[in-house]
Amino acid sequence: MSHSGFLSPTGVEITFVLVGIATLGAALITVSTKQLVHAALWLVVALGGLAVEYLLLTAEFIAWVQVLIYVGSVVVLLLFGLMLTKAPIGRSPDADSGNRWAALVVAVASAATLVWLVVDAFRATWINLDGPVQGSTEVTGQFLFQHWVLPFEALSVLLLAALVGAIVLSRKKAEANGTDRKIGAR
């Protein structure tokens, strides 16, 4: 079985790079915009781009988990948090701390380190497409339910506790302000 060389990209590899560039652009807009709602919506685009990358890597299950959990749940929870805390919807002067250059240096250094580590770790690794594919539902399910059941369930309980806590805190503030109204009351 012969592999194509590193410098002869296929259509999937070209698509992977183009989607990666679009995802990187959406991520940069997410962290640079001063409007919090726009940042959340650009986060949806960035996370959706990651789901497309997973699809291109033949990890369909992980792609759908990305869409359902991160795009569907985390971003909706983030938007609910923005609405419940009455954060400014438009431009916010508080969204800029003045540390952009320090943050940029740390981000570039972190990205370069991560890219170097991944390239170094997987330099000579080829994906074997014979048998169960890594990232497939079968392999992911076996790995998840053999090794990660307890942390997975603990995380679900933690997220549920955080959601209940957010509801309780928002109710206490509403009752303290005298804005607690019964449904149907006029």
Describe what you observe in this structure.
This protein is mainly alpha-helical. It has a domain of 81 residues: Up-down Bundle (Four Helix Bundle (Hemerythrin (Met), subunit A)). The chain is 69% helix and 0% strand. The radius of gyration is 22 Å and the shape is globular.
Overall 3D form: globular
Oligomer type: single chain
Number of helices: 6
* SS-based class: mainly alpha
> Which architecture name of the domain at 12-92 does CATH use?
Up-down Bundle
Main sheet makeup: none
> First CA to last CA: what distance?
75 Å
Task: Report the helical percentage.
Answer: 55-70%
What value does the Rg take, in angstroms? 22 Å
Mean pLDDT comes to 78
Determine and state the CATH class of the domain at 12-92: Mainly Alpha
Brief write-up:
The chain is mainly alpha-helical and 186 residues long.
Topology, element by element:
Elements: H1 11-32, H2 36-56, H3 60-84, H4 100-121, H5 137-147, H6 149-176
Helix pairs in contact: 1-2, 2-3
Labels describing this entry:
Four Helix Bundle (Hemerythrin (Met), subunit A); mainly alpha; 186 residues
